[in-house]
Here is the input.
Amino acid sequence: MPAEARKKLHLEVQDVISKRDAPLEVIAEHAYRSGETMRALMTLERMGDAGAERGDHNASILAFRRCLELARREMMESGDAVMDAAIVTFSRKLAWALA
Here is the structure.
């Protein structure tokens, strides 16, 4: 399957399952694979925070690691200075989840 078609499919699935109150982890997975960085960052951060609140450190670590990866990639591709603050925030949250 071509990458653009796969990204479009993930985006459409994310829209459908968001309206049906799917688990946050499922929505975050599709957001991560959809190619929309900002939407994915927001959803993954919510997933990481929710995982930390309920003591699910594996979910927090996965979410914050993916956030950090996406923010770094976006900064490299666009050179956007806004991502500097995001990288620091996600690094700190990942460190707390790992600790």
